[in-house]
């Protein structure tokens, strides 16, 4: 059978088989995620616990439901899951959402490669290229907002490429109330709408402005923020919890700053060196056909880089902020695999090799988070050695010229990408353990000490969500000024779980908002625990029968007990 006849046969008969293969690969990744979820008893980040608590308490308190930090795009869908299925149900729900991202990445890759049957067959690699992104897999069994944001973004991009522009804008609107900073993508979608409307109207600006779906799409992008603002206006929210607070707060670099390339260096930690390298090749090869996924990724990474560089939005500079880009990145990476075997595959191959070299330097040079330090030297040595050998061989093959040289270069680039992807997945992805965090362990042990006292089972509050998670009787109060007022007005016998991360200092740095002196003046310490190295400690105080007005509000710097840290930050530090 000739190559042309085989291509025609595959193009006509393969789509259903390709869909099935992509679905199988998607479900395989889902099974791994569920196994990791079942083996986890810890959390990736404090926000991981916090969002679960928000969703749990939203059933009873509308003010929590519409709190700015509850993120309605995450909170509303997960509320029934929390109520009826608990924490494992939330982890499984997140895994299902990631599976949705994986299959949508396949559909996006098929749209990009439309008209190229051979490249479309390789689009079924996209689900794998989602699951092997190390931080995407890790967050797939957490309760963080980046996972649903990735689903909304992938859905919006696919719908737009498919021609369902208004529905795409509806999905993007949900993204804006899940990760607020990604509203920066609204101008990208607006530009796409305007460009398509101009093309459809033949270049006439009058007909462009009279295009119904242009205005329908622009309006659709506003529906979720508008509904959120209206619903929040009907609830008695504190100023700090209002959705409008995000526009009026004076943000600073209180969580640190970095250089302009900080987030670009964090991206390989989130998406993986190999996948990003292939995505670079796909973006180079696809050009205008993939301009929307490429533009979405470019604008998002530029925004995060600028924000952390300038300290303009109180950003934590975390690599997990880039997880929402998982779908477009995987789709571009799948296209990159196909592009390297095309007649003009030299440029994508060089792009992949260059991105691999840069990724090795950025990730292994600075240390990979959550990877044991003892593993870093051998991993780094192996990564550098393999990448260097393959890059040298690929360059020689490129210089040799001809189809054989091109294919040798493509194989070298693909091998480098696969090795690097395997290294990162093996090194970064594992079940989340409570024992991985010293703060969590200290609070847990302190609560165990409380169980041996006469105050066991007493009701109380805390500034750290882990105490709420570990104890049915302790509730997390999310803002220090609120906590201070609550404690001063509390009846005798109520408890406060103090810990060195959040209770020792406030986000604003205002001494009058430090809760520690209020706790000490009006309470008695009944349990305590400190880490062996003294970096973290926890204590439980019981409210004494002392009227609040008998103890004036402390002002000015206060002395903390030995071992108590002043470096803590307020909950929900990652904006």
Number of helices: 26
Number of β-strand runs? 5
Instruction: Note the main sheet.
Output: 5 strands, mixed
User: What strand order characterises the main sheet?
Assistant: 2-1-3-5-4
Could you report the average pLDDT, rounded to the nearest whole number? Answer: 83
Helix content: 55-70%
Low-confidence parts lasting 5 or more residues at pLDDT below 50? Answer: 1-13, 557-575
Q: Give Rg in angstroms.
A: 26 Å
Give the overall shape, derived from the CA principal axes: globular
The CA-CA distance between the termini, in Å, is 58 Å
Which structural class should the secondary elements be placed in?
mainly alpha
Beta fraction of the residues? under 5%
Kindly list the characteristics that best describe this protein.
single chain, 575 residues, mainly alpha, 5% strand, disordered C terminus
């Amino acid at each position: 059978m000739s190559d042309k006849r085989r291509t025609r046969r595959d193009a006509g008969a393969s789509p259903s088989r390709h869909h099935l293969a992509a679905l199988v690969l998607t479900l395989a990744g889902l099974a791994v995620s569920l196994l990791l979820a079942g083996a986890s008893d810890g959390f990736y980040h404090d926000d991981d616990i916090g969002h679960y608590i928000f969703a749990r308490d939203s059933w009873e308190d509308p003010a929590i439901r519409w709190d700015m930090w509850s993120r309605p795009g995450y909170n509303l869908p997960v509320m029934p899951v929390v109520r009826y299925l608990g924490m494992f149900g939330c982890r499984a729900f997140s895994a299902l959402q990631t599976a949705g991202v994986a299959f949508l990445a396949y559909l996006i890759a098929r749209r990009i490669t439309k008209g190229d049957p051979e490249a479309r067959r390789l689009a079924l690699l996209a689900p794998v290229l989602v699951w092997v992104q190390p931080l995407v897999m890790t967050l797939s069994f957490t309760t963080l907002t980046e996972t649903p944001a990735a689903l909304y973004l992938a859905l919006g991009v696919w719908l737009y490429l498919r021609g369902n522009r208004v529905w795409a804008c509806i999905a993007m609107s949900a993204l804006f109330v899940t990760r607020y900073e990604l509203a920066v993508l609204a101008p990208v979608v607006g530009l796409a709408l305007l460009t398509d409307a101009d093309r459809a109207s033949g270049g006439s600006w009058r007909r462009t402005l009279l295009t119904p779906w242009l205005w329908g799409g622009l309006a659709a992008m506003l529906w979720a923020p508008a509904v959120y603002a209206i619903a929040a206006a009907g609830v008695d929210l504190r100023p700090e919890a209002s959705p409008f607070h995000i526009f009026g707060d004076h943000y600073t670099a209180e969580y640190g700053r970095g250089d302009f390339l900080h987030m670009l260096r964090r991206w390989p930690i989130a998406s993986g060196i190999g996948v990003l390298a292939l995505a670079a090749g796909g973006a180079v090869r696809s050009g205008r056909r993939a301009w929307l996924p490429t533009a979405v990724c470019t604008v998002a990474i530029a925004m995060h880089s600028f924000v952390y560089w300038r300290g303009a939005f109180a950003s934590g500079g975390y690599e997990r902020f880039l997880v929402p880009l998982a779908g477009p990145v995987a789709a571009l990476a799948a296209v990159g695999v196909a592009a390297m075997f095309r007649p003009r595959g030299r440029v994508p191959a060089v792009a992949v090799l260059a991105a691999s070299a840069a990724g090795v330097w950025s990730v292994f040079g600075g240390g990979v988070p959550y990877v044991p330090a003892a593993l870093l030297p051998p991993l780094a040595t192996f990564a550098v050695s393999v990448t260097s050998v393959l890059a040298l061989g690929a360059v020689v093959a490129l210089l040799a010229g001809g189809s054989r040289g091109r294919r040798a270069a493509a194989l070298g680039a693909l091998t480098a990408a696969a090795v690097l992807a395997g290294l990162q997945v093996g090194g970064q992805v594992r079940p989340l353990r409570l024992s991985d965090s010293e703060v969590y362990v200290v609070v847990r042990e302190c609560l165990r000490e409380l169980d041996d006292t006469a105050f066991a089972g007493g009701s109380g509050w805390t500034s750290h969500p882990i105490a709420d998670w570990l104890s049915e009787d302790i509730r997390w109060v999310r803002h220090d000024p609120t906590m201070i007022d609550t404690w001063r007005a509390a009846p005798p016998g109520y408890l406060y779980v103090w810990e060195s991360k959040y209770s020792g200092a406030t986000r604003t740095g205002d001494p009058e908002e430090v809760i520690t002196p209020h706790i000490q003046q009006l309470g008695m310490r009944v349990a305590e625990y400190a880490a062996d190295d003294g970096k973290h400690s926890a204590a439980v105080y019981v409210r004494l029968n002392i009227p609040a007005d008998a103890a004036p509000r402390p002002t000015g710097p206060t002395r903390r007990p030995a071992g108590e840290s002043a470096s803590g930050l307020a909950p929900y530090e990652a904006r």
